[in-house]
Design goal:
Blueprint (H helix, E strand, L loop, with lengths): L12 E8 L8 H7 L4 E6 L23 H8 L3 E3 L9 H14 L3 E3 L1 E2 L2 H5 L2 E3 L2 E7 L14 E2 L5 E6 L1 H14 L1 H11 L9 E2 L2 E5 L4 E5 L2 H15 L4 E7 L12 H13 L3 E5 L7 E4 L2 E4 L4 E4 L4 H6 L6 E8 L2 E8 L6
Parallel strand pairs: 1-2, 1-17, 2-3, 3-4, 7-13, 9-11, 13-14, 14-16
Antiparallel strand pairs: 1-18, 5-8, 6-7, 9-12, 10-11, 15-16, 18-19
Helix pairs in contact: 7-8
């Protein structure tokens, strides 16, 4: 990727993957050595610190973090936390705001979730390093920051591209079942848009030479994030964007096309690194022109209840990755993640 040259300096920055902490942890000496002496250590906080009267907003994969998770991360030297992810809202707005305030009181710079969009999209700055945190979903509308609380969202859209014959066949099905007629009446009344996107029972469709998913980043969201990067450039020496996403490639270790395109846009806009999380394994790392892109840093702590299943399927959740800026250059290193043995 032909990224523009980054600003260099005598800095050490460490960017770790996702920390999903349910139990007490003892940091390995190798990991402590990695973060030792760093000017800034960044991490994705994968979880929620809800108040006692909050309740779960999901049926599964609800992650209330260990109450002392922040203390544990501080002991590792972590300075800034990315909060924009799919577990920030596990306990609703109350849990999201409690997580932010609790971690701020613990001394962290936090980004990605807040009481409105201005708060959620603001950079967390420490020692000249600005952290921006973005969630690429899927995220329910109520959990997206706007006038009210939520995460700093990149609202990806997806359509299913199909050849013309398949599109015609599906259109015929909607006529036979009556779906097309019901949709026409809803448009006539004004319930739905008069110029609907072609769809099949809620699945957006468009023409394509072969069946494929087509993911797009909304231009308005991308432009807003670019503006946030450029604003952060005036406030700090380095700008790091942490992006969390669950729209993965078939091969979890490969960067999806939409993400590779977005990386080029954000790095060209002025970000020094795009560090992604979401896939529970380490992914591709590309370093060029003094800038870094990690499609997934995987885990640093992953207290999952599915450890045995991951191991049986040979999904390498125990091996994460870290991005290091030191001696004026980026590099990546393998991190042995803390994952339950059973």
């Amino acid at each position: 990727m032909p990224f523009a040259s980054a600003r260099h300096g005598p800095m050490k920055i460490v960017i770790l993957g996702q920390a999903l902490i349910h139990h007490s942890v003892t940091w390995p000496e190798e990991l402590q050595a990695l973060t030792h002496g760093a000017d800034a250590v960044l991490c994705n906080f994968e979880g929620c610190l809800p108040p006692d009267d909050a309740w779960p907003m999901k049926q599964k994969t609800v992650h209330a973090a260990h109450p002392k998770a922040g203390v544990m991360l501080r002991n590792l030297g972590v300075t800034q936390l990315a909060l924009a992810n799919n577990h920030a809202w596990d306990f609703g707005h109350a849990g999201l705001l409690s997580t932010r305030s609790t971690l701020e009181r613990s001394g962290f710079g936090v980004a990605g979730a807040g009481h409105n969009l201005a708060s959620a999209s603001a950079a967390a700055i420490y020692n000249g390093v600005a952290l921006l945190s973005v969630d690429a979903g899927p995220t329910p509308d109520w959990a997206i920051a706007g006038a009210g609380p939520g995460v700093n969202a990149l609202r990806l859209t997806c359509t299913l591209g199909l050849p013309a014959k398949l599109l015609t066949d599906l259109e015929t099905v909607t006529i036979i079942t009556g779906k097309a007629q019901k949709s026409a009446r809803r448009r006539a009344i004004g319930y739905d848009s008069l110029t609907p996107q072609r769809d099949f029972y809620g699945l957006a469709l468009e023409g394509s030479g072969e069946p494929r998913e087509i993911w797009r980043c909304p231009p308005q969201d991308t432009a807003r994030i670019v503006a946030d990067i450029q604003r952060a450039q005036t406030q700090a020496k380095f700008v790091i964007v942490a992006l969390h996403y669950h729209h993965w490639s078939v091969d979890w270790g490969k960067s999806p096309d939409w993400l590779s395109d977005l990386a080029e846009t954000l790095l060209e806009a002025g970000a020094d690194a795009l560090a992604c999380t979401g896939p529970p394994i380490a992914g591709e790392v590309r370093i060029a022109g003094g800038k870094a892109f990690a499609s997934s840093l995987g885990n640093v702590v992953f207290h999952t209840a599915r450890a045995k299943k991951y191991d049986a399927l040979r999904i390498p959740v125990r091996q994460g990755c870290a991005l290091i800026f030191e001696d004026g250059a980026w590099r990546s290193v393998v991190v042995e993640a803390l994952v339950p043995s059973q």
